[in-house]
Amino acid sequence: THAAITGLKRNIKLFVGGTGDSVLSTWNMNDVKELEASHVVDSSIMKGVKNCQILGDTIYILDDTYFLSMWDAHALVMVWSWPSVQIQDFLVTAEGHSAAILLGN
pTM here? Predict the structure, then answer.
């Protein structure tokens, strides 16, 4: 299971990726300071999350079939993928206003 926390427009979100029925979910604090799920991705989209990293408003997800995809962190929808490349692992780095993905094949 992988988890990441980020602040999006004065709102702290917890992203959890793993295996099972709900392989990816986002959690928010409600008005009474309790965690509640706001978005869930089920196992029909991907079977499991191997690695996930957040950079700004974007989540990079490597699933257990070595498929790397990029997701919008607000709506939890896939916006880009790299289907023709099998990736073993990755690391997202940022410096200033630019970002890079280091891939391990």
Answer: 0.78
